[in-house]
């Protein structure tokens, strides 16, 4: 980024139309009108992003019902006047917001108030997803208030880059639908790194010297990026709507990452069966103490008490759920249950088909398509079906299953039936 600016870019991402054929990612951008003169290119309607970054998001071949990522992106350019950003706090957390970069020294800039930054932070705590890109500089918007909320600070280092860490390699940013990214660049003559990161955070990328350049704040679940030019022409984003290089992939994959970033876990209770959303790993707790071998998406209670679950996201963040209190537990016979339908649409609900039940030791589950071809097999209750076959998602259809269950007391049960996959 050019040294006459401090970059602050916040992208608040969430989703509309969680069910249905066409799903949306709606992005509201702070308009470049907020700084009408000078180098005002670092917003989605600014000249450094309209040539390549914005068209790539709006290209239906990239984001669309038949695109590489099957959600449609829409962009609105708003919040162009001082004080207007305070309105974001009352906005639904499934709205989208993009905070561009502005030069406080430019006479045309409508300054951002502390109340606006507070509103943005509190909106994030309510569930909004934010991408913040910032840079160390004596120029640009005074982001002291921003730092005080998100607990980070930056320093300057040229040249700089985004080299994935072990945690970063496992995310869609570097291994996403638009292709693998081994490294991405910052850009311009002002680049940087973080010399302070939030205390509860995961580092997803560093520069060549090992200093953080891309982090996830596990408290707010926001992505914080050391330089906006990772997403602009100065960093290497190509002109036009086509994904042409690693920098383009880095940009498009970042949007996918935020779209798929898990929300904090919520426990669903059905009798004595507890379950939560889809995460990378699980640990269930009883009265704040971990339960041995309780590491699946669901757990069947065995006694009265206060239950919770700690989940691990793909980025490495660990999130603790709400609590559920059980006061009426009583012993019941062994049982098992396989849902008759599931919907692997990445909404965190019924995305995976699992065998659930009480007292189960082993299972043997086989699922077949209408031609008799086996599309899935499992011998463990923690190994569920995500609706894919040979790595590709299957469409809506009815499948036949064969299930054998062995309980801890040695009893057996077998069953055959149908299960419906809903897209």
How are the elements arranged and paired?
Blueprint lengths: L8 E4 L2 E2 L6 E8 L16 H4 L2 H6 L12 E8 L18 E3 L14 H12 L5 E3 L10 H7 L2 E4 L4 E4 L1 H4 L5 E2 L2 E2 L3 E2 L6 E5 L4 E6 L5 E6 L4 E4 L20 H15 L7 E3 L2 E3 L5 E6 L2 E2 L7 E3 L4 E8 L5 E3 L3 E3 L8 E3 L3 E2 L13 E3 L1 E9 L5 E5 L9 E2 L2 E2 L3 E11 L4 E10 L2
Parallel strand pairs: 3-4, 6-15, 25-32
Antiparallel strand pairs: 1-5, 1-6, 2-3, 7-12, 8-11, 8-13, 9-10, 13-14, 14-15, 16-17, 17-20, 18-19, 18-21, 21-22, 21-23, 24-26, 27-28, 27-31, 29-30, 31-32
Describe the structure.
This protein is mainly beta and 423 residues long. It is built from 6 helices and 32 strands. The chain starts with 8 loop residues before the first strand and ends with a strand. It folds into 3 domains: 9-260, Rossmann fold; 262-332, Immunoglobulins (Immunoglobulin-like), CATH 2.60.40; 333-423, Immunoglobulin-like, CATH 2.60.40.1220. It has an 8-stranded mixed β-sheet with strand order 5-1-6-15-14-13-8-11. Strands 18, 19, 21, 22 and 23 form a 5-stranded antiparallel β-sheet that branches. Helix 3 (114-125) runs parallel beside helix 4 (144-150). The longest helix has 15 residues, at 246-260. Residues 1-7 and 14-22 have low confidence and may be disordered.
